[in-house]
Amino acid sequence: MKAISSMATRQVLSDLLSAAESAGLGSVALESVGGVDAAKRVAGGEALDLVFLADGALSTLAEAGHVDGATIRPLLLSQVAVAVPSGEDRPATRPEDVAFPDADGVRQALREASRIGYSTGPSGTALLRMIDAWGLMSDVGDRLVQARPGIPVARLLAAGEVDLGFQQLSELVGEPGVRILGVLPADCAVSTVFSGAVATASENPAAAAAVLDHLASAAAVELKTAHSFDPC
């Protein structure tokens, strides 16, 4: 079987699919690309069995008949975190505390940053909407740097291209050259639900659905949390 996903879930899905194979559910070859590119390929009718994308993107593909809407299963909840360059090669770890107790601290950090990195996809869109709702777009808009599709914000931070970065926590943990300050506080939290679905182009939809069921089961929870995702 073949599957496609966005870059945000590549590592956790690789482990989850390996565990499903060990459970006797068959082998799935996973390709992870930028979420926009993945959706375009699915919409183009590429021969795939499973599709893993943000919930909204999957719903759009289901409406157009490219994935079976009845098979959509929420799998992973990802929170956006804030990070800065560390100047070290050690992999970033998840902090125990949050750097900002509330939205005021985040707004101040945005005002003080020289260059602000953010991602493509739903989390980046949500961040831009929040900045605009705060009335800060005129102040910081010319300092916003969107990472190229498939390029993590962590890479911009490590290279010194930005000095403040917003990215899903799962994509920051383990990356060298960054220090994670924490997830966004509750009063301005940004989260994304990633779901899976069986592609209508699948030649073995029953086998694909069985793999999807396993990924949504309690047996997969430990792997999800190990990759800094919350189970749905």
From TrEMBL:
<dbReference type="InterPro" id="IPR050682">
    <property type="entry name" value="ModA/WtpA"/>
</dbReference>
<protein>
    <submittedName>
        <fullName>Substrate-binding domain-containing protein</fullName>
    </submittedName>
</protein>
<dbReference type="Pfam" id="PF13531">
    <property type="entry name" value="SBP_bac_11"/>
</dbReference>
